[in-house]
Fold these 2 entries.
Entry 1:
Amino acid sequence: MFHNPLSSLAGIGPAKAALLAFELGLETWGDLLNHFPFRYDDRTVFYLVKELDADMQTAQLRGIITGQQLITTGKIMRLVATLVDADGNKLQLVWFNSIKFWQQKMPLGHQVVVYGKPNFFRGTYSIIHPEITVVAGALATDAIATDNPAFENVAAQSAVTENTIPALSPVYSLTEKLRKKGVDSQVLGKLVQQVYDQTKQLISENLPLTVVEQYQFLDRKTAYQLIHFPTDYAALEAARYRLKFEELFFNQLRLIRVRGLRKQQLAGWPMSKLKLFTAFYNDHLPFQLTNAQQRVLREIRQDMGSGRQMNRLIQGDVGSGKTIVAFMSMLMAVDNGCQACLMAPTEILAEQHLNGLQPLANAIGLPIAKLTGSTKAKDRKPILEALASGVLPLIVGTHALLEPKVHFQRLGLSVIDEQHRFGVAQRARLWDKNSRPDQSNELGIETTDLPEVIAPHIMVMTATPIPRTLAMTLYGDLDVSVIDELPPGRKPIRTSHVYQSQRQQAWHFMQQQIADGRQIYVVYPLIEENEKLDFMALELGYQMMQEHFNPMGIAISMVHGKMPKETRDYEMDQFVKGRTQIMVATTVIEVGVNVPNASVMLIESAERFGLSQLHQLRGRVGRGADQSYCILMTDVKLSSETRERLATMVRTNNGFEIAEVDLKLRGPGDILGTQQSGAVDLKLANLATDMVLMTQARDVATQIIERDPDLTEPEHIATAEYLAGSAATGLAWSRVG
Ligand code: ADP
Ligand code: MG
């Protein structure tokens, strides 16, 4: 039944069916049932014409239709009817389509309820293609001024068919094309009703009954009825609560099972020896690890020692010290006869990682190399050979590490920095890098008792904090560790928001900081759509600063993506070495760059950056022992959303708190980019606001899988069947049946 095509419904011909499929992707009865209203109008509220406002999305009015007129302007014909309300004020009702029908059926002289979006034009309000319901003439005895001529005939007319309007009427997302063909929310609601009436016996429970009881959920059939046709707000809430839970529960069930299956199936190198690891820990650690770093390392050690493949996401705010955790994990791999790689999203970052890891590797006596797209052929060859033979245990690089030519003798651990720039598919490509697994083993590992297919452990590091709910939905197939503590002695960065008119003060402040020996970043936005103008602003800003600062003996570097690489590297290097005091840049410096002496981050046109980007940029300072500052400079005219973004930055340094606000302001799709937003394609639940429910759904799903991994207990049969159905087809209808 849920597969039935929409054309089998009364009122839907092939043309409308095709339009519904094209515009909304609705093809079957099941699709329609799962097309939930996106809001509900309170149809107990009536407006008078004098209360209308052109900004209203919709309004409902009562009145009498006093006349109609066909008007032609050029080639366009429209039918205009006049509605007079209880005050005697007029509202125009306008039709461009179905004119014939309305000319004949216009309930002239009848009392009606009209509903639609009010428009205001040349002193008159109108509603185009309103929804009209003829109602009884109760108005005549109500608050109507009976001397109003418009209402004279009300009593006589009250014999017409009386319709009722539900108190909460569903509003469905529709398109202009559909509306033009007469498909409005009322029409769609009636179609849903048809489907529901015929299929309700088949809408069966898919949650375990104990869960339904424990959470006092509505049964599924009732929930579907009430979400489309709520009797009141409480009923609507109950329906949404149940269906949201269901959505989140199955999302989690799927992810947890994937993770479980992978754990069972994919062997990882068993890594229990900790020789270099311990030596490094005892003798070469440059500082004491924070509790969070120690905890995360323990979690990693457990994973890597288990004999199963590790898939772990390490989240840690900028500066939380992920690098050392990565390095010590890489040591674990080497301790157990394997190689390890660290992959960064850009050349600059790969370079920085090499600079960071080299001294650590040297201290423990291990060679390390770097492989990127710009590695010259003559350098590349020995590196590739060393990786293939196994003499090179550690490598840092970019996407270049994924190229088919790159083979490892035995890759045991891949660390991926900055997850957001690597897709899931790329993660997977790292798995088949061990193309010659059992050749001569120069690292001296016992290979006899290893399983045949061994995937390297995968560790993904991200400095872009992801709200817990989002992480659970997106990376539910990964285990997550959080480094939620900064190394001691860091002073929280002080952030302020200033206007462009205060630039002189800002520059004066910069001058003082430089006099104290500090360095400064000044960042300009540069986006493709606005590239020319942005570029001019950057150049102009650079010139102005040179004119202002050079006479004081302050030198300025500039980097941007359009520069030849050599120039950029040179400029960067000048700043890193402290030969220039100010670095003017675009967001190329966003990720990972580490200059501990930099204490001020001035962000120009800060209103044009997203929250997480602002947070990333700010993370470039505050890395040394000195007090650091972030200055957000903006135009005076700002939207309220922008103000909230800036206020959030000023209020907190906590990346997770910022991520939560970001999620609320922008939604998951924008945060992750369209590429990944498919992974969190939820119809009802909102990851920003349904955090508690999300956590409950995950807990319930986890408990069930722990007790009954294959869902074979009688109580779980329905759940298992539903899961299998939705996994097999991926179609929305299976959510119902
Ligand atoms: P991120 O998590 O942003 O990659 P890094 O690993 O680059 O952070 O660490 C930032 C800075 O903090 C580095 O200079 C690093 O040496 C230092 N650091 C890391 N852990 C500690 C610690 N436990 N104590 C003191 N300094 C630390
Ligand atoms: Mg880092």
Entry 2:
Amino acid sequence: MKKFFITTAIDYANGTPHLGHAYEKVLTDVVARFRRLMGDEVFFLTGLDEHGQKVQQSARAKGIAPQQYVDEIALEFRNLCARLTISNDDFIRTTETRHKSVVRDVLQRLFDKGEIYRAEYKGFYSTRQEQFLQDKDRNPDGSWPEIYGEVTEITEANYFFKLRAYQEWLIEFLRKNEDFVFPRYRQKQVLEFLSEPLNDLCISRPKERLEWGIPLPFDEDFVTYVWFDALLNYYSAVADRPGTWPATYHVIGKDILVPPHAVYWPIMLKAAGIEPPKSLLVHGWWSINGAKMSKSTGNFVDPIAFADQYGADALRFFLIREMSVGQDSDFSNAQFLARYNAELANNLGNLVNRTLNMANRFAAGAVPAAEVEEDAERDLKALWAKTRDDAIRLNEEFQFHVSLERTFAFVTATNAYIEKRAPWKLGKSAETRDQALLRTSLATMAEALRLAVTLLAPVMPTTRDKVLGLLGATPAGAWRAQLEWGATLTGAKVGQTAILFPKPNSPAS
Ligand code: MSP
């Protein structure tokens, strides 16, 4: 079995989960589920980034200890994963001992190798961003951009990691590994960033300025810079799982590619003598109603509330159908409802409904055997074979939105097949041929539905389970084999009519 280790970024524990966090988890889950179904041995990691200034400030604002604060936030993020049926194998928190001890080991190793040195540093410091700024960060008029908040000039002793010494190595590494960053054009952005000389990275914060962090093993008056701490989660989580590292994919948003994931992380690992990850999968950002999401202005989508109202699968479907991996996208209620109604309620939901209704009405609730094969059946089977092969290839290329589009086109074609065969008319005829066609059409629609929901499993796992249950199907063998058109449903007892995607304001079944 091929090993496949996939991670999400670990979210900052200084606020509640939002749609961006939900999307990243769903996208990663879709890849993880797809690889599992394809037979890989998958390890899927997510977690929480719990140290740093912002967490310390948020806890203080609430008047509670930082540990209590992050414990509460961690519950919310775990709940998000459960509510969205995220199939993560582990959830790492950077305040856990297993993480802290690995961070301290790596720091000590780098210090012993001479990769970390102490120096006086005088510079402009942004409290909001927790970083020293460079002249190149200034506005053209010399002022500091607003995102940095208050900027003050300070002098302090700190520890520095020799990033610059590895610049040439990293450029060479990226040239040799053209697929390190997906989508490919983002790799160019990394190389552009590397066309300027790198500065060594300040990896310490004096304890008097920041307490909430991992103390440096070689100088306990300092804590570790939050990115140095956070990035190591990917490695610390699997430290006791030999053979899991390196990660196959780190799934991250475009804002944290350069410099943390594409520059600091490979260099940290190289300097520590650890293999780099295989690749970074970089997604775009969601805006809401055309604007940046923001809790304070109310332009905010609570993913849990959405999943509660429409079901986790409906939200998962929308996020994956709407966004092309790598590009930005916009979320609005109107667009969500348009897809929900057209694709889920009226197309897939309708197919489920009709299939169950007709099997109950015309075949005493048991799927009959197909008896004839004419152009209508042949065409649908041919479309299925193409849809399945395309969908698998598209999933492998992370083109999940197109894969879903094709799968739903097959659902549309199945509904059109039903219109064409019109079982409700055949059911009124006593002719032998019509009766054979009736049984064939019932078998064909049930099989097409079984196949469609099986193919949708990475994105809509609950729907797959529900529909297979309603069809009396008992999936066996590898996923690829389950995707073959066959007669496994013959004789299966189907359930009663079910409304999978109730129209808003109509009662759920
Ligand atoms: N804690 C760091 C990551 C450390 S990884 C070693 C962090 N946290 S975050 O909470 O700000 O963001 C977590 C992830 O959510 C990032 O990959 C980020 O790109 C993603 N998103 C945050 N807002 C987003 C949108 N509006 N849309 C899509 N994803 C977004 O960065």
